[in-house]
Design brief:
By secondary structure, the chain is α+β, with helices and mostly antiparallel strands. It has 3 helices and 4 strands. A hairpin with a 7-residue loop joins β2 and β3 (55-61).
Length: 101
């Protein structure tokens, strides 16, 4: 497996039931700002069909330095860390890199 190349972030968010509207509004803002980052290759948000199933956020970045730039960006800290995370009841994040088996 190569140690460089694009990275996909897969985030599973469990949202407090009464906070879904607020989280969706905030993630829309975060998505727009993230797509403006030079290392961002894509940002998609999916909502589970089953009630209470949560959200899946898929982000694609040019490389590990772009992931780090995103995590330290002012808009990420202000929107994701300070506003979205307190509204979640659970969160799991994986960083994945495509391989050619």
């Amino acid at each position: 497996m190569s140690a460089s190349g694009p990275i996909t972030t897969v985030a599973h968010w469990q949202v407090h039931p009464t906070a879904l509207g607020s989280v969706l509004s905030l993630v829309a803002q975060l998505r727009l700002r993230t797509l403006e980052e030079p290392g961002c290759l894509g940002y998609e948000v999916f909502q589970a069909v089953d009630p209470g199933g949560g959200l899946l956020v898929l982000e694609r970045y040019r490389d590990q330095s772009a992931v780090e730039a995103h995590r330290t960006a002012q808009h990420y800290q202000a929107i994701a860390v300070q506003q979205i995370l307190p509204l979640l009841s659970g969160r799991q994040v994986e960083l994945l890199r495509a391989i050619d088996p």
